[in-house]
Fold this protein.
Amino acid sequence: MNVFDELVGQQHIVKSLQDAVTASRTGEETQEMTHAWLFTGPPGSGRSSAAVAFAAALICPNNGCGTCIDCRTAMAGGHADVEIIRTEGLSIKIDEVRELLQRVAWSPSVGGWRVVVMEDADRLTESAANAMLKAIEEPGSRTVWLLCAPTLHDVLPTIRSRCRHLQLRTPSTDAVAEVLTRRYDISPGMADFAARVSQGHIGRARHLATDESIRGRRNTIMKLPLTITDIASAFKAAATLVELATEEANTQSEARDEKESQELAQAWGQGATGRGMATGGSKALKELEKEQKSRATRMVRDSLDGALLDIATLYRDVMMVQATNATNGTQQTNSANSAGAITQSAADSPIQSLINKELAGEIAALADRLPPHATVEKINAIMKARTNLSFNAAPLLTIEALMCALA
């Protein structure tokens, strides 16, 4: 067992990381080991897990055994020489980076390296990225930077040019299903469903497999495009989608926000003396509320983004049916025959498989009704809405515009 065993479907990068760990024992920068790394890959590919596993292996005396105290504390985020930066807000600001740079300037206290893992390097503001650039250009002799982002283009060119790049890939459906059954004792049928509809995102697959409310919410979202017949129904579908996303975000954040506020108030002396909080407590609470509001905004947008990706898979399946019908010369067959044909094709060929097999009939009906170019236009409209949301566009207006495009 070692720390890299948790990486699913990433065998192509494990050897590079293991070679780097071996080379790091000399304490010098070599062809295998360098001071700055950039892990990229689609959501759910495990880029953060790979970075944390690499950090643990670097400070482990046994090259990442996975069982020693150094490995366990590093993987849990509690090691003195491993900084794991996770942001739950919309961005990482320059003040946070400056504070980080002060801490990483210290020499390692326990292990041989001081390692910084930044899980959302794509969320650095321009000023924050420029502040961090100097540290990466002139790192401490025993400091290693591990940055994570969805793609290379999400990181400033000046930063990515100074990092060794490792590209992770989306794990296969079979690999994710195997992990769900082995680690979480999930039934094979449920594991297959969750792995398929999550598109290789292990964390999301686990939540889908273990939480019936999440499956119910996804089922409602997937049927929204099927209810759109005119502009009025498009606006209704948009309102429903935003409401579902907001409800999901609130469910996750409300209990957590209350607990954080209570703990901070107690830390500032509330209830201890009977006189309320110490001086500065109110300001600290306001800062916390600001952070919580930013986190809630991001959670709503992340929830909407996930919902849009799910809807995109519906039209992807429609396009697959249309392509199969065109190939077989059966584009004019009725929806029932189309559903049967594509289901049989899905069983015969992995390339023809449907992501949403449970909606095969509805997908076939849509495939018969829509011309192929309209299917492509709808997928493009969904991707455009995702881009607009990432640029902080108003969620409801963005989703309303999308649903009108899907109508």
User: Anything to note?
Assistant: Residues 213-270+279-407 form one domain.
